Structure prediction request, 334 residues.
Amino acid sequence: MEASSFIRRLPKAELHLHLEGTVTAETLVELSQRHDGAPLDLAQARALYEYTDFTGFLMAFKAVSEHLHTAEDYEMITWRMLERLARQGVVHAEVFVSVGVVYYWRRCAFEPLFEGMERARARAEAELGISTYWIFDAVRHFGVEEAAPVFRKAAELRREFPSIIGIGIGGDERRMGAEPFRELYAEARDAGLRLTAHAGETTGPDNIWGALNIGAERLGHALSAIHDRELMELLAERQVPLEICVTSNLRTGCCARVEDHPLRLYFDAGLMVTLNSDDPALFHSDLVGEYDSAQRHFDFTDEHLRELAANSVEASFLPPERKVMLLRFIESLQ
Ligand code: ADE
Ligand code: ZN
Prediction:
C-alpha cells in the first residue's frame, strides 16, 4: 500500500541512518564491477543481504562495507542516499559512517574517502536543499583501543569540516557495553563533538543506563527501556531523544512482533521519540515506510506524525535558527 501524501510531504529529519546500510544490492553489483575480478551478479549480491538474526545482520553489514574502496565509491553511495532521502521529504540527515570498519578491516586512511562523501553532501545541499551531518561510528566490539582513533579523527577533521557533528558506538552491545568508552566520550565532548550511542537494542536496560552515564545525548533503539520504570521516568523527565527504528528491530529479530514494539508506549509515556530507518537497504525499507507503519500498526494520527517529525528536528544537532525554520515548515504543512 502507498504511503499517504501527507507523510511524503511532511518535512522530516533522519537521525539514525548508516551510510553503508543504504547501499542497495543493485549498487553493490556496480561496486563489484568496479573492483572485483569476478564481479557479483544481482542474485549473489542479494544473497549477501539475507540473514536470520542480529549476528547475521552485522555480518551482512560487514559484507556490504567490504565492497566500498575509493573516494568515488563513497561519493556515489552518499549521493544516492541523499537523493533517496530528499525524495521522501527528508530535509536534514545525521548519518553514521563506520570509520571503525575502515580502520579495523582495511587499515587505510579515511580522509580520501571522506572527501568523496563531502563532495556528495555539498552537492545535495546545493541541488536538493537537504542538510547533512556526519557521525563517526566506532564498532564497539572491536574494543576501546580501536575506537580511540575513530573519535580522534572526528575531532581532528571537524576543525576543517563542520559537517562532522558527533560520534557513536554501533556494533554488538552483547560483547561490549557503553561504560568502557567513558573516557573517550569525555574526550570527544571536550573536543566539541556531540555524543550518541546505540543502547538497549540487543541488551537490557543496564546498557541504556551505561550510555547515559557516559554522557550519550541521544540513544539509538533503546528497545529495552520499557522494562525499567525508573529509566522510563528519567527518559521522560530529561526528554532524552530516542532514535527508534521499528523495522530494523523486527528484521534483526531484536523485537519478535510489531505488536510487541514499545514505540506507542514510549510516545504515550511522554518520551522524546523519533522515527528512523537505520539500514534501509538491508531491511528493504525507508523512512516514509517507518512513518506509514507507525500510522498503520500503532494508530498514530497525522497530527501525531507531525509531532514525531517535529521531534526529529528538535532532537537533531542543528543550530537553533535552522530548527526554528524547519519547525515552522512542519507546523504549516496542510
Ligand atoms: N551497524 C549498523 N546498523 C547497526 C545496528 N542497528 N546496530 C548496531 N550496529 C549497527
Ligand atoms: Zn544503527
The CA atoms of residues 280 and 286 lie 5 Å apart. The chain has 17 helices and eight strands. The chain has a mean pLDDT of 97.
